[in-house]
Amino acid sequence: MKKTRAASKTGKKRSGKNIEVKAPKRRRFVAGLVAGKSMYRAALDAGYSNSMAKNAGEKILPGARNEFKNDLARKIPHALLIRRIAEGLNAKETKFAQFEGGFSDERHLVAWETRRRYAELAAKLMGYLVEKVELGNSEEGPTALQLNVHFVDAEKPAELLDPAAVGIDEGG
After folding, report:
1. What is the pTM of this model?
2. Helix (H, G, I), strand (E, B) or coil at 1
3. Are residues 26 and 32 in contact, defined by beta-carbon separation less than 8 angstroms?
4. Which SS3 state, helix, strand or coil, does residue 47 take?
5. Which of 8, 73, 144, 145 makes an SS bond possible with 3, Cβ 3.0 to 4.6 Å?
6. DSSP string for 61-101
7. Sign of the dihedral through C-alpha 159, 165, 169, 171
8. CA distance 164 to 172
9. Which string of b and e fits 90-129 if b means at least 16 CB within 10 Å?
């Protein structure tokens, strides 16, 4: 039976029967990633075509994210992840001094860069820090946006807030 374009993406036949055609491949793909394989190798080993494997990050991974998260949660308990992040927030490094082939001194220092990275990770996971995303509508890059801010004294009359009054060009 011939599948429609929409049906082939969802794994459903035209007759309305639900068939999970891609799920076994996705599970094998995720298992390969968890085992440490590259996306390309995991996709090939799961039975995807070479062209799909080359674009696994864009074509396969988005549909496998939940399976990947669930598999990682089984392998890495949340408590362990939280404990390791907390340890990273208190990271220290030891510097050693050598003299004539032997260690003559050692200092325990705060590992500021490591702590910063763990603090950033924790902030992202907790939703306090969101990555900057630039959107563009052309191949040259993101759309440029120029924003001019003019501070107006609160005691000045309201007509000064008129763009023409403060010299703002509203033209395209």
Report:
1. 0.43
2. coil
3. no
4. coil
5. 8
6. HHHHHHHHHHHHHHHS-HHHHHHHHHHHHT-EEEEEEEETT
7. positive
8. 14
9. eeeeeeeeeeeeeeeeeeeeebeeeeeebeeebeeeeeee
Q: How many CB atoms lie within 10 A of CB 54?
A: 15
The pLDDT of 19-32, averaged and rounded, is 76
5: tokens are: 């374009």
Give the tens place of pLDDT for each residue, 114-129. 999 999 988 888 888 7
User: Which ranges in the chain belong to alpha helices (H)?
Assistant: 5-10, 23-34, 39-46, 50-54, 56-59, 61-75, 78-89, 112-125
Helix (H, G, I), strand (E, B) or coil at 110: strand
